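Bench notes, afternoon.
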Amino acid sequence: MSDKKILIIDDDPLVLMNNSDILEDAGYTPTAASNSVQAWNTLKDRDFELIICDHDLGDGKGIDLIKKIIGSGKNIPVLYLCYLLHLNLPGNPISTHM
């Protein structure tokens, strides 16, 4: 098995499955967590080379989990995903108000 371990955190089971499959096909060892509690418990027991974390989790916001991870002293790179696109917010460079 690969030693390139990646923790994927997302509350959408389809996203978890697809991302896990893609990473596994690319030679990585993915571990899926569906919420921040499950992710935190997994992180207490294992080391990862990368965390891929969604913004909206079923039990909170991904950013709060990331702050907790950083506060614990773990030094793991994070790819933070946010699928929200607020097109109608003033100042948004791709706003529909152009």
